[in-house]
Design brief:
Chain lengths: 287, 267
């Protein structure tokens, strides 16, 4: 980056560091922090949508829909999330390719599962075999977002279901007494009052979500864990910047990053919870 | 190979007893069930000992956190903050990297009168290293739960204990501690479930599975990678985990009933 970095072998001290920390690979590391943050902010809307869908399905009067909601919300309680991620990712990937296979290659006769192989016609590959590298990366990242969304959506559905349940019945009956339609009651009374009960659970969920982001690495996304391992590994003299095994150092940087992220989140949620309990008949609201 | 043979050769494969070589092709349903179930031994092992030891450290840390003296409460707060604020996955990495470094730094502890040689090479093995990480992790989370409960122990109970002249230790053992457990048990059950699920991460982070002796997820992933078919091994491991989670909830429920046996039920 700087001009004096042309021959790193001759540098020492902080000049060496200024060059080392501005190499292209190091920038890959810095950008990957953005990848993690963007995953967090992109999944949240999806999580909330799936959470509401699950919670409302579980409250539905229509029995099969209620079953579906109950199964969806309770599945995550019994099974580790990492298993869901691993499963959901391959299942989604194969599902998409299978659908494209049926649509794009109707006259393909060979079976798709041949022994230990999953073979679809070349046109159904997702992404296509000849597409550039960045398409592969974006596709993998989108699959990860959907996987996170589905798993954490189930957690959110649990929380929202409990919160919708916790709104005092008298409040809703008042709405009926005023002649509001069920939809109006839901929008004007039920939903606004639910947040104060949902917030502790949702803030907890956000913390869990933050702490689940390193799992991206297991899903094959080039995230901060990937780069920390890549850059921290021993670099011999054939590299421009040789150094020993610095993985511990890199991981300590990640530790600080996560501690800062959770610390800031905690502060934000504290303020938010004061905000939503204003005017509510709870200990936090009246005191 | 019939299913009975598969069971005899693979049921204890994860701890190194039985057939050495894993099946390579033509996996039967029985093989997948048996091997994944065999891996489950490790998950149960990690969860059991981490929870057992963690329970005691958590109580100590919660007490320290609630202490008036800063040299107790500050380290406890820092410990809880660092562990609860960072992903378990990163903790595994950091622990493994530092455990690998330890022997190079020398491991003779001189206590003045006696010299202790610390055996550190086991720490780089999953059975001890990962257990230490899980133990510290659950200790911090449980300590926070216990600390919250400690603050909600009814004041009247403590005053009553003072009034009948209990010593601090008796007061703790007979009044504070049971109340603390009773108040925190529901959250503690959740934490136990989380920890049990976290054991699936062990062989996915840094700790290598030595001689292919891995946990349930290790074998499930083995099958999923070999067959490229996730629809068999993952549901199997899911069923195993659901069953064991229900068992865990049942066991904690028994303790809960015992803790609450003097409380009038509102049902």
């Amino acid at each position: 980056m700087f001009e004096y970095c042309a021959d790193p072998g001759t540098l020492s001290g902080y000049l060496w560091w200024s060059c080392y920390l501005t190499t292209g690979k190091e920038f890959g590391f810095y950008i990957s922090f953005g990848v993690v943050l963007s995953l967090l902010f992109l999944t949240v809307p999806l999580i909330m949508i799936l959470g509401f869908a699950g919670a409302l399905a579980r409250r539905s009067r229509f029995l099969p829909l209620r079953w579906f909601g109950t199964i969806y919300t309770s599945m995550v309680r019994g099974v580790p999330d990492i298993i869901f991620f691993l499963f959901a990712l391959i299942a989604l990937d194969q599902g998409i390719e299978y659908l494209r296979h049926i649509i794009l290659c109707p006259d393909w006769t060979e079976p798709i599962r041949q022994g230990n192989d999953f073979r679809v016609c070349p046109a159904a590959k997702m992404p296509l075999g000849n597409s550039p590298q960045w398409v592969h990366e974006v596709y993998g990242f989108s699959l990860a977002i959907v996987g996170f969304g589905v798993v954490f959506g189930a957690f959110a559905a649990n929380t929202l279901y409990g919160a919708l349940d916790a709104v005092p019945k008298g409040q809703l009956e008042t709405g009926t007494a005023f002649g509001m339609s069920p939809r109006q009651i839901f929008r004007r009374i039920h939903l606004p009052q639910m947040w104060v009960y949902a917030l502790p659970g949702l803030s907890n969920l956000w913390m869990i979500l933050i702490k689940a982001t390193p799992l991206l690495f297991l899903l094959g996304v080039e995230d901060i864990v990937y780069w920390a391992r890549e850059l921290g590994g021993t670099k011999t003299a054939i590299y421009a910047y040789p150094h020993g095994d610095w993985r511990l150092g890199y991981f300590l940087v990640l530790l600080v990053f996560y501690l800062a992220l959770t610390w800031v989140s905690e502060r934000v949620f504290d303020r938010l919870s004061r905000r939503v309990s204003r005017g509510q008949a709870t200990l936090g609201g009246t005191a | 190979m019939s299913c009975v043979e598969t069971i005899t050769s693979y049921a204890l494969r994860s701890i190194g007893i039985g057939e050495r070589l894993l099946p390579k092709t033509d996996f039967t349903l029985c093989e997948q069930f048996v091997l994944i179930g065999s891996g489950l031994i490790w998950n149960v092992y990690f969860a059991f000992f981490a929870l057992l030891f963690g329970f005691f450290l958590a109580t100590a840390v919660a007490m320290a956190r609630a202490s008036d003296r800063w040299f107790f409460s500050y380290p406890a707060r820092a410990f809880i903050f660092v562990i609860r604020g960072s992903p378990l996955f990163i903790q595994f990495f950091i622990a493994y990297e530092s455990f690998v470094l330890i022997p190079k730094l020398g491991y003779d502890l001189n206590l003045g009168f006696v010299e202790i040689t610390m055996e550190t090479r086991w720490l780089t093995k999953a059975w001890l290293g990962a257990l230490v990480v899980l133990f510290l992790n659950t200790s911090a989370y449980s300590a926070q739960i216990f600390y919250g409960a400690l603050l909600s122990v009814p004041k009247g109970d403590i005053e009553a204990a003072d009034a009948i002249g209990m010593t601090p230790f008796t007061k703790f053992r007979r009044v504070v501690w049971p109340s603390m457990l009773r108040l925190s048990w529901a959250s503690y059950t959740n934490e136990a479930i989380f920890l049990f699920h976290a054991t699936a991460l062990v062989y996915f982070s840094s700790f290598p599975a030595w001689q292919q002796k891995g946990d349930a997820l290790y074998y499930a992933k083995y099958f999923a990678d070999k067959t490229f078919n996730p629809f068999v091994p993952y549901p199997i491991i899911a069923v195993y985990f659901v069953c064991l989670t229900l068992l865990l909830i049942g066991l904690f429920g028994i303790v809960n009933r015992r803790l609450n046996r003097h409380v009038a039920s509102n049902r």
